[in-house]
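Help needed: design a sequence for this.
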């Protein structure tokens, strides 16, 4: 599958004074994840991975605790996932994942980002079929055979395993995220995952040159500035 997954999204911390935006986005995602799967990280592996990523991105504990407390209470905000797809500068492909309490507002905001950067928002499925929706785990190690054996014993449908520079990268279907993570933890104990996420990995890349580069970066900046946007995936190669 290659290491194209490293090209999968722009860091939420790219824009200036982005810390509060990062905190807000993690807080919202932790709240939704805990609300749907339970507030105990030991029993909600998706939440556990999300909290670990938040800590690595230096999100303060009080932000995480506040989101968990809100999820444990009655009522609360009603966020729902929304995904938008389209074509950016140079005909690159872009997927925008959001959490929103007002889909009409969010669609209008995302569409505005595309329109103002000479990009075109598409219909659902217009580009996502050219991405692999994967659970990806990266951790220190070099025993590819033992990792594959452990995953196969757990009946995980492994897509690929890479061994490079003392690190193993495991790719699995996004629907098997929890099963894959549990199998790795059972086999190797506590693991310090460098990457522990579900991502859209492009099957091909689109090189950008000239004015398209600046316009593409503007598109990413505008999208990442939106409170409702959680992740932006693309196949652009700058």
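Sure. Designed sequence:
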């Amino acid at each position: 599958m290659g290491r194209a997954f490293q090209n999968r999204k722009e860091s939420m911390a790219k824009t200036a004074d982005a810390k509060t935006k990062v905190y807000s986005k993690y807080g919202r995602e932790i709240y939704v994840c805990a609300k749907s799967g339970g507030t105990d990280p030991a029993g909600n592996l998706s939440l556990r991975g999300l909290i670990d990523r938040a800590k690595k991105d230096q999100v303060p504990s009080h932000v995480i605790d506040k989101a968990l407390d809100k999820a444990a209470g009655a009522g609360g905000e009603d966020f729902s996932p929304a995904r938008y797809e389209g074509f950016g500068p140079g005909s690159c492909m872009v997927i925008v994942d959001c959490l929103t309490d007002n889909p009409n507002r969010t669609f209008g905001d995302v569409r505005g980002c595309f329109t103002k950067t000479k990009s075109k928002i598409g219909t659902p499925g217009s580009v996502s079929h050219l991405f692999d929706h994967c659970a990806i785990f990266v951790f220190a190690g070099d025993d590819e055979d033992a990792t594959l054996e452990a995953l196969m014993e757990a009946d995980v449908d492994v897509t690929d395993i890479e061994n490079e520079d003392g690190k193993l990268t495991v790719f699995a279907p996004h629907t098997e995220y929890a099963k894959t993570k549990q199998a790795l933890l059972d086999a190797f104990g506590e693991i310090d995952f460098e990457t522990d996420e579900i991502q859209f990995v492009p099957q091909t890349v689109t090189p950008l040159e000239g004015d398209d580069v600046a316009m593409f970066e503007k598109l990413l900046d505008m999208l990442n500035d939106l409170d409702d946007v959680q992740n932006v995936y693309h196949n652009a190669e700058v």
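Helices lie at 19-37, 45-56, 61-72, 103-115, 144-153, 177-188, 211-224.
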